[in-house]
Structures are given as structure tokens and as C-alpha cells.
Write a structure and sequence with these properties.
Blueprint (H helix, E strand, L loop, with lengths): L21 H35 L13 E4 L9 H17 L3 E3 L25 E5 L3 E3 L6 H4 L3 H7 L26 E5 L4 E9 L2 H10 L2 H4 L7 H11 L1 H4 L2 E3 L2 H4 L1 E2 L14 E3 L11 H5 L5 H7 L1
Parallel strand pairs: 1-2, 1-3, 5-7, 8-9
Antiparallel strand pairs: 3-6, 4-9, 5-6
């Protein structure tokens, strides 16, 4: 068997020749070219990222101007109540809004069986309003002379009204309202009834915190919990488990913002109160909302005389 051998190196190698100056010149040119290409590439990457960050940057925060001072939001269920009754509720809101040069937002909605009621999002509201007042459709404004921004939300007024160091969910919740909270720190005002927090009448200060709060309250994860009382129990849950929300919350006496037509539900309406809510009025029978509303028809006279 034969194997091929590599050729032997010559024992007489050629004489040493120094490198010519052309080779370093060529290499330096190549390095310069490569450097320019890399610089151009990095410049393009930087410009692309800069342009992309502009396209995807969050919108600049819009600070509400306070004009109008308040937006009233009422959600109407036109498939459940009669037209006459709903027209009366709309008239009540419009008269109050006109008197105080406010805005009214009555979004329509259709509620499916078993679906929690829809609360308004910040996108439903006039962006420049200082405050957003949600008022249930089964409630009437009774005192046209009281302004939300003065009667409830003025910091010095809140200092007088706030119920401090009080169980969030009565009677014995270990989570209590903050004892050191100041009026200017409050962004969310509501009341309690005998069952717990009442979401039938509440006020939120418009701004970034309001957006965060509404989105948290109706986050899909809380909807999936299937709370027995839907949004009310979801509200009680996030208030007790999220200090970020509790730190902005103020409880006020029920008659300040949310009097009831029946004492068994909570504090009942007295003459001069801002609002009366028709407590537990039904769709049929003797206790329909329309029948119950007749007991408080004096709101029309109050507006005429104001």
C-alpha cells in the first residue's frame, strides 16, 4: 500500500522581502470604510428607535380646567322602566345642570341578564370638568341650591364632613378610613348604608387618579369573581385591599349625598337634603319606581322657586 506524502519544503527558502507600504494603506482604508458603515447603521437604529418612541409614547396628561365644574353621569336602562318615568329623571338632571351651568352625560346601555351594571369610564366625561358626579337613575336631586363643588368637594367642607377611623364595611371591618386624611387629598367621596358602601351616588375628582380608579374597579379580574352584589362588592374589595384607593377615599354622612326614601335602607330623606334615592323600588306591583317617585314630586316646585 502506498501513501501520498506532502511535498517537502525547500532547504533553500527565498530571501526575506519586507512588506510594502501598500498593504497597511489598504487595511486602513478598509477599517475606515467599516467604521463609517457601522456609524451609519447605529445612526439609523437610533433614528428608528426615536421615531418609534414618539409614535408609541403615552399621550400627554391633560389637566382639567374646571370648566364646567361638574359633570353629572346617569346610566338609563330604557328596557326596564317606562318612558314617562325616565323622562322625569332626565328632566330632573337637566334642570339642575342648567341652573349651575353643568354638563349632563346620560349614556344609554342594555344590560344582559347576570351582567354587572356598567359604570361610566373617564372617556364618557367632559375632559375639562373638575368633578364627576355619578347619580343612579332611581334618584332625584331635591335641593337645586346646593352645588357639588361647594356642598361636598370643597376641601374645608370635606374637613367638616369626613368620617375618619371608621370601618369601611360596617359594622366591624378591620380596615378603616384614614384618620389623618386632609380635604385636599381626597379624590373619591361616597357614603355608606346599612349594608356597606353605596355606589348609587358618588363623586370623583377628575384626573389621572380617577382613570386609574375606574379601570381598577371594573378590571376583568374582579368581574370574574362573580361577587354577589356585583360592582358594590367589587368596590368594597378594592377599597380594603388597595391602600392607593383607600388613601384617596372619604366617607361622608349619607344625607349629604345619598339620602334614601326608606329608613330601613339607611338614613332617610329629610327636607333640604341634596338627593333622595328610591330605595329598592321594583319593576311591578305597589312599589314601582314610578309610584315611589310621586312621593317626592316636590322637586319640581323646588326648581321653579330657586
Amino acid at each position: 500500500m502506498h501513501f501520498a506524502y506532502p511535498p517537502r519544503k525547500s532547504s533553500n527558502p527565498p530571501p526575506f522581502r519586507p512588506r510594502t507600504s501598500a498593504i497597511p494603506t489598504i487595511r486602513s482604508r478598509r477599517l475606515k470604510t467599516i467604521g463609517l458603515v457601522c456609524l451609519a447603521f447605529l445612526t439609523l437604529v437610533w433614528l428608528f428607535q426615536r421615531g418609534g418612541s414618539r409614535r408609541h409614547a403615552p399621550p400627554a396628561y391633560h389637566k382639567p380646567s374646571g370648566n364646567p365644574p361638574v359633570v353629572i353621569v346617569t346610566v338609563f336602562n330604557e328596557g326596564k322602566y317606562g318612558k314617562g318615568y325616565l323622562d322625569m329623571v332626565k328632566e330632573n338632571r337637566l334642570k339642575y345642570a342648567e341652573k349651575h351651568v353643568l354638563r349632563l352625560r346620560p349614556p344609554r346601555r342594555t344590560r344582559l341578564v347576570g351582567q354587572p351594571p356598567r359604570r361610566p369610564t373617564r372617556h364618557d366625561h367632559v375632559p375639562d370638568a373638575a368633578y364627576i358626579w355619578y347619580l343612579d337613575q332611581n334618584a332625584f336631586i331635591m335641593n337645586p341650591n346646593l352645588k357639588i363643588e361647594e356642598h361636598v368637594m370643597k376641601p374645608s367642607r370635606l374637613e367638616e364632613l369626613m368620617i375618619k377611623d371608621h370601618p369601611v364595611v360596617p359594622p366591624d371591618s378591620i380596615i378603616k378610613t384614614f384618620s389623618h386624611l386632609k380635604g385636599h387629598d381626597v379624590d373619591f367621596v361616597l357614603t355608606q348604608d346599612k349594608d356597606g358602601l353605596s355606589s348609587s351616588s358618588f363623586v370623583v375628582k377628575n384626573g389621572e387618579w380617577a382613570k386609574f380608579f375606574i379601570e381598577t374597579w371594573f378590571d376583568p379580574i374582579y368581574r370574574s369573581y362573580n361577587f354577589q352584589k356585583a360592582e358594590q362588592h367589587a368596590l368594597e374589595h378594592i377599597v380594603q385591599w388597595h391602600p392607593t384607593i383607600l388613601a384617596k377615599l372619604a366617607l361622608v354622612p349619607q344625607r349629604i349625598l345619598n339620602s334614601y326614601s326608606k329608613e330601613k335602607g339607611g338614613q332617610d330623606y329629610k327636607e333640604g337634603d341634596l338627593v333622595v334615592r328610591l330605595y329598592a323600588c321594583g319593576e311591578a306591583g305597589e312599589d314601582t319606581c314610578e309610584t315611589e317617585s310621586q312621593r317626592f314630586a316636590q322637586w319640581k316646585t323646588a326648581f321653579q322657586n330657586s
